Amino acid sequence: YLGECNTKNLWCFQAQRTQPPPEEEEDAEEEETEELGHVDTYAEYRPSKSTIGISHPDIVVETNTLSSVPPPDITYTLSIPETTITCGLLSALQLEAIIYACQQHEVILQNNQRAGFLIGDGAGVGKGRTVAGIILENYLRGRKKALWFSISNDLKFDAERDLKDIDAPYIPVLALNKIKYGDTATSEGVLFATYSALIGESQAGGQHRTRIKQILDWCKPDFDGVIIFDECHKAKNATSTKMGKAVLNLQNQLPRARVVYASATGASEPKNMIYMSRLGIWGEGTPFRAFDDFLHAIEKRGVGAMEIVAMDMKVSGMYIARQLSFSGVSFRIEEIGIDSDLKLVYNKAAKLWAEALQVFMRAADELGLVSRKSLWAQFWSSHQRFFKYLCIAAKVRCLVELAQKELEAGKCIVVGLQSTGESRTREVLDENDGHLDRFVSAAEGVFQSLVTKHFPSEKQRREKAPGTKRKRKPRGRQPKVSKHNVDSGGVINISDDSSSDSDGMETDSNSSPDSLLDNDDVI
């Protein structure tokens, strides 16, 4: 239950702030401790220089250090339609970020590259809609092509939704993974791709083609449109990984592109900023000749230095970072009654596992296993996950009722799942060529996975080296039905399914249970 998890964190935070100092301390120390305990970490945020737009629907804050410095004066005039602004499709906060990003894009750095902008807004401030607004602004200014990189191809639908939300559904979003290598026919729109696509290549037809060349051919060398690096912390190992090098290479190949970095954890660690070459903090005409010099100087001075960097970036107009406030947040825990249907399912499940336990114990006895640690680690781990999924399923009906009640009250619902069952769903999709032919139960998947792992029906036996004990496992499909495991003579049919001497039911007693769950349905 998501609320419980979050509220524990909130409660801990409040407890630290209100904890009284020990009585035996001296008065001076007591006052100092009390004063430190009540210093606010965040300050309420309102645009200080931008005056357009309707205020954001929720309270937004920024860190005290950032709020102590002002952003630069605004010199840029937006082209976004008045109706988009007056109807509140973009809030005042989002419009402020768009203005500062476009204003920063007018600057040319000492190395003759166009300056970039970093959006460090947290969840709920609307980075996606801000990014869509930057694309729309440039589209209206005649820059019809844009690149949008993110961590998953599925986020293309989010990009389309964000553009539609700001009344710009006419800007097409093209998925790079759906376009053939070498095809650059599309003339305008947003080319959406993942970071991994930057290192994609093809040998089809005897020709070596790469995605990065395809992107560069589509953009043309004089490209001055927008490049969005969404969730850009994924490119943090820019010097060591092929993907990171590709991100830097793309920026160098298109010096006039308008680069936007978007990440909630953008400037948290200096080493993760290596791909942000367009901020102009290091390089030609700056105090730091190379990124390594900047990194050494900041890491030597700790967190305080990083805060100063963030403040300097805000003053220079290249960085903005806001997040939703937690003030006024409340929580409650709902108790869900168990109905007769659930009781029946739960009791049947308990019986199933009791029978499975008997079969596993019988099989272990028959094999004469001395060390059973790994076997029981896997058995009880599966048992625990099975009932976790059952408990999640039991909450669904009540959750839907609660959600409908809150929606009727005009509230927005966010559902946090402990597990989505995606792994099991993908397995079923793979088995049926991408179609679901039945309801997918994660609990059933856990049980089946455990059974098929230990009770293979058809496996080739393998001879062991002399002096080692042959590992054998009972045949059969379901452990709860003992007749499948025993022949007419009362002998359990066994076969070996291990691929190495360390597999199977008999493993080293020091082995970690975690290492034995690779084939299970782990989310």
UniProtKB/TrEMBL annotation:
Q: What does this protein do?
A: Acts as a transcriptional coregulator, that can have both coactivator and corepressor functions. Inhibits the DCSTAMP-repressive activity of TAL1, hence enhancing the access of the transcription factor MITF to the DC-STAMP promoter in osteoclast. Plays a role in bone homeostasis; required as a positive regulator in TNFSF11//RANKL-mediated osteoclast fusion via a DCSTAMP-dependent pathway. May also be required in the regulation of osteoblast differentiation. Involved in the transcriptional corepression of NF-kappaB in macrophages. Plays a role as a regulator in the pro-inflammatory cascade.
InterPro entries from the xrefs?
P-loop_NTPase, SNO, SNO_AAA
Q: What spans are recorded as compositionally biased (Acidic residues)?
A: 22-34
Basic residues: compositionally biased ranges: 467-483
Protein name in UniProt: Protein strawberry notch homolog 2
Source organism (scientific name): Tetraodon nigroviridis (Spotted green pufferfish)
List keywords of the entry alphabetically: Transcription, Transcription regulation
Q: Where is this region: Disordered?
A: 16-36, 456-523
**Biased composition, Basic and acidic residues: where in the chain?**
456-466
Per UniProt, residues of the Strawberry notch AAA domain are 56-348
Specify one Pfam family: AAA_34
One GO cellular component term noted in the UniProt record for this chain: nucleus
UniProt family annotation: Belongs to the SBNO family.
Q: How does it assemble?
A: Interacts with TAL1; this interaction inhibits TAL1 occupancy of the DCSTAMP promoter, leading to the activation of the DCSTAMP promoter by the transcription factor MITF.
> Which GO molecular-function terms appear in the entry?
chromatin DNA binding; histone binding
One GO-annotated biological process of the protein: macrophage activation involved in immune response
What Gene3D superfamilies does the annotation carry? P-loop containing nucleotide triphosphate hydrolases (3.40.50.300)
